[in-house]
Specification:
Helix content: 40-55%
InterPro entries: HATPase_C_sf, HATPase_dom, His_kinase_dom, HisK_dim/P_dom, HisK_dim/P_sf, HisKA_7TM, PAS, PAS-assoc_C
Structural class: alpha+beta
Largest sheet: 6 strands, mixed
CATH class of the largest domain: Mainly Alpha
Radius of gyration: 38 Å
Number of strands: 15
Catalytic activity: ATP + protein L-histidine = ADP + protein N-phospho-L-histidine
Keywords: Kinase, Membrane, Transferase, Transmembrane, Transmembrane helix, Two-component regulatory system
Distance between the termini: 88 Å
Shape: elongated
GO biological process, one term: regulation of DNA-templated transcription
Oligomer: single chain
GO molecular function, one term: phosphorelay sensor kinase activity
Amino acid sequence: MRLFDNVVSLFDPAALSHPYVPAAVLAFVVGLLAIGFVGRLERTSQTRSYLLYAIVHTIGTGAVFGEMVVAVPALKQLFGLTTYVFSTCLGSVALLYFAMVYCDRTDLLARRSVQAVLAGTPLVLLSAALVNQSVHVIAGPSRLVASGPLEVYGAATRPGGYLLGLYVVALSVYSMWPLVDYYRGQSGTLLRQGRILVAGFVPALALMGVGIFDLHPFPHIPIETWGFSAGVPFVLWGLFGYGVFGTVPVAHRRVVEGLDDGVAVTDPDGVVLDVNERLSRLLGVDPDDAVGDPATAVFEETPLAHAPPVAGRPDEDVRVEVDGETRRFHVSQSSLTDGRDIRVGTATVYSDVTERRQRERELERQNERLDQFADNLAHDLRTPLATARMYASELECKHDDPDAAQVATSLDRMDTMIENMLTQAREGATVTDPEPVALADIARDAWDRLDTEQAHLEVQGERTVDGDPSRLRRLFENAYRNAIEHAGPDTSVTVEVTEEGFTVADDGPGIPESERARVFDSGYTTRPANTGFGLSIIAALARAHDWRAAVGESDAGGVAVRIITDAQATLEEGAVVAD
């Protein structure tokens, strides 16, 4: 009971009848709501900068309420100091920082003058307060003064105080400039976003001027701290109505201006938010005229009239007449969502793929010619080979000649070599229609297709690459066969998937470093019974994907066949890359 009485004695009963106390409570609660709502959004530089701005002002607002309701002078002084530090020293700086981050004005943030303002303003204001303790140029001596039915600490404002007040107001007004500069000339959703944000700062600036220059009935209560809370309803309106933290200027600018392809950004209603210069030249329209109009109307009577950026269109190639030439464009879309996964717009990208498609068709023709050549070569070789095998078989049956059996074995080996050469030629054809392939899954699938009862496989890591699933499966199969043939049927094979590619390693005897330079040569083998095409086929399959194949030593001392999918990757010492 005594503890309760002690706690109650800290509060001033007169505060209950002061007209500003309900306003202080409301301002503090609204600040907490802003922190709560924005804090639940996806963490971006924009939401983080707004949270900083909200937290600074909410602490200052809470401190004003605390100074009004407590009865202990020391606590009143502490709350008053907290208000000065957070609302006066940090508030305007936090607002300026938020405005620049929200509009992606990194060019301004990089300026030394702006950095000096951001870092120097709090230091100057704090230093001025310390100097004022001995030389009262900002305000007179601080003392308890009556403010309606309660007492707060106050002091008479001196000329220096008004100058500092003007500086803080001017800095806050300047903070609106990045927003106004960006949103002027916009239309549609972006224009509505801008109006809401700017409207939210107007009451904040108005209360700041009223409070700093004591233009209200209780001048010793710093109501300027409530300005932030007065603007919160506008921010929440923009958040839930127009995706203020969804299609923000930074995302909008980087999507539209950061690509060499043509880009159109539309809102959920199909209204054009922006088109970049590349697309505006293709359409033959002025970007300023396009923004704010329905996409179907903007694209009508243009070369892309049959492919407007309406939401939900499939990814496809379209033909477009450009300067009397038929060009092919690939049209793709991405939904723009806010932190709550609510769609706030659509980005449609028009990529000129004319040359790429021409190269793909040429590669397909080359692959077809290569297949035809390989088939003809195999047919021309196998016809006399079949005749030779028939004579060798007759010779072996009629005369039981041991040399005939050796000839038959050599002919069988030749047939296997022809098959391997045919495989190598076909597998080396460039992959023209890749698709996403999970390396770990394809590695296990290839293992399951082989007779590997005594051997052991371990797959480490996971990654998806663009490739031909059937050829990747054969690549792994050849790597496994190579490991089992050279390391033994009970070998342990490890597949390690990394960001740079993947490695198939065994624990066998390995390949001497002096021999590694030849391992990718067609027909090279250390065992007479083998054909020597395993690693060369692996290299051909890698080249078909525009990758590199290399051979080195595994951690267990065996062979490590490495497929490098990253052109910038580096190789370990002693590894040999296929030509």
